Amino acid sequence: xxxxxxxxxxxxxxxxxxxxxxxxxxxxxxxxxxxxxxxxxxxxxxxxxxxxxxxxxxxxxxxxxxxxxxxxxxxxxxxxxxxxxxxxxxxxxxxxxxxxxxxxxxxxxxxxxxxxxxxxxxxxxxxxxxxxxxxxxxxxxxxxxxxxxxxxxxxxxxxxxxxxxxxxxxxxxxxxxxxxxxxxxxxxxxxxxxxxxxxxxxxxxxxxxxxxxxxxxxxxxxxxxxxxxxxxxxxxxxxxxxxxxxxxxxxxxxxxxxxxxxxxxxxxxxxxxxxxxxxxxxxxxxxxxxxxxxxxxxxxxxxxxxxxxxxxxxxxxxxxxxxxxxxxxxxxxxxxxxxxxxxxxxxxxxxxxxxxxxxxxxxxxxxxxxxxxxxxxxxxxxxxxxxxxxxxxxxxxxxxxxxxxxxxxxxxxxxxxxxxxxxxxxxxxxxxxxxxxxxxxxxxxxxxxxxxxx
Length: 454
What we know:
By secondary structure, the protein is α+β, with helices and mostly antiparallel strands. The chain contains 16 helices and 18 strands. It has helices spanning about 15-25, 50-65, 120-130, 150-160, 165-170, 180-185, 220-235, 255-265, 300, 310-320, 330-335, 365-380, 385-395, 405-410, 415-425, 445-454; strands at about 5-10, 30-35, 65, 70-80, 80-90, 100, 110-115, 115-120, 195-200, 210-215, 235-240, 245-250, 275-280, 285-290, 340-345, 350-355, 430-435, 440. A 6-stranded mixed sheet has the order 10-9-13-14-16-15. Strands 1-2-5-4 form a 4-stranded mixed sheet. A two-stranded antiparallel sheet has the order 3-6. A hairpin with a 3-residue loop joins strand 15 (about 340-345) and strand 16. Helix 7 (about 220-235) packs antiparallel against helix 8 (about 255-265) and helix 14 crosses helix 15 (about 415-425). The longest helix is centred in the last third of the chain and has 17 residues, at about 365-380. Residues about 360-380 have low confidence and may be disordered.
């Protein structure tokens, strides 16, 4: 693969690292830097991958302004028996980012144009600065300054890390005047933020049967409490078909966990509105405050382009191993649920996950459903397009096929590949078993299966 607007190769770690990272921070889609791969795309590897990894983190922490902590990941990968470094950079909310020693000048500000990192003009710098987000939670002063962080310290110690005396500065819990900011308030042992998990009898909000509140504590603790509650609600049901007995959760647990953490970490807390979780007879809904960032389109959102709203929270959750790579959450959700599970408005983002199975269905009913599906499938295959048959053939050859690999094989974009998968699922022709490490199951037999090959 050659260099693109989002991919940069470096054979070795060079003095130009900050320039390339700044260009991606200022670019609307972010990007990736691979160190240990030459300009032609050949893997050459690195001699001291651990040392280079530490140097990269230190340089990005100290040489770029505004702070980009929480906006990048540094990962060691192994290709062709060689070690390389992959840097994932998210698009920042506080553009323009610049090289500290040169300031907010044409010499210090860069942006990605094609496959090159180019200096910004002073006009572009001024325009970005005028649009810079100024009400982020890192800049809002906490209305309480008597904050304690014992819970946060315990969670860090559980990962083998220890917060030192400068943890408030290191985790960016102070505003520019040295006071605790709203990030600190959310992570403190005591605060006024409460996350509600409501349960209803039925498919609307008329009959509330359970209302739980998790909060008034560190946001990390509240997140774990919400995850524990939804884990209890996510029952394992048995689905009996004519051929086999299948155990299945009401919701895919990996997608559900990603959705919960995404909603909490990316929620817009500037209006003091926390995310909420609602369980109905047929679905679970997760609503977080704040629509998509202005620079992000829906297609970019679905493709995993990351523009963290609260980079300080993202950094803490990453430290505590509660999130993985930047931009991995939405693609994980889309592996189990189609795009239609998301809905957007100017002020909110909603995710709705339907139950995989009816809790009242079991035993003989499962067999009946299995037989019905098998009996009606004969007429369904005739409605499949040639491209969808091609998708089915690829899945038959590789049941662990990912959406991204499918898109590459078909030479189409990821969103188009996802649409084909969604349509095939809606027609009852394929089914996802398990989450990210799961596989696809084709629900076609006999004559219909032969039609796929024709």
